[in-house]
Amino acid sequence: MVWSAPTRPPPGYPERHMPEPAWSLHSRLKEDTIDIGDLPLSKVLVIKDAHYPWLLLVPRQPDAVEIIDLDEVQQAQLMTEISRVSRALKEITKCDKLNIAALGNLVPQLHVHVIARRTSDAAWPRPVWGVMPPLAHDATEVQNFISALRRKIWLG
Q1: Cβ atoms within 10 Å of 14's Cβ, excluding its own
Q2: Which PROSITE patterns did the record assign (predicted)?
């Protein structure tokens, strides 16, 4: 469970009527990904590009754009989740290198890329963005990949 500091309602306003801030996944991320499941803080997604084993972690915190927009406990939880997902991805893919980044230049919603890289991939040693048009996943292969990831990161 992720702890965050409580917010106080205005004087005279009962706490039970305070609406929780709404969180939703950015439309671009929704369009470009396959949902794997939820860790305590983050939604875990697979990018729809079979060129690279590529995951995203999106903290379910409204209005979070930068890691510093999370409180310290949430930041620690995010690092724990990045580590868990990274270890699983490395073990499953046997990759040469992991690229981990929170850029957000096109999508302002805070999200962290975890990409398994091989020295033989199309973009090596450059960043993956814009090198090749996205390649659709084979349905069976991506489901096997997702199942393996879910087991490794304790989602089922």
Answers
A1: 7
A2: HIT_2
